[in-house]
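Sanity check

After download, print the first record. It should look like this:
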Amino acid sequence: MRRSLALFGSILFVAGLVLGFYASERNCLIAFVTKGYINFWTAIEILGGLAALVGIIIAIIGLLRK
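Expected structure tokens:
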């Protein structure tokens, strides 16, 4: 259970990171902060960052759980 949880968290982290970086190439998050305009790629970039954060948390829980 512990190893599979850490593996799932790592995979989720990498997928979120790749998705966030790809969306970052399409649209800059700074434009959202300065102009307040959100489009599809800005939302994908935010979701990719959240997925990476959740993946890190799950991986840490999987590594520390006994």
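If your output differs, re-run the checksum step. Summary of this record's structure: The chain has three helices and no strands.
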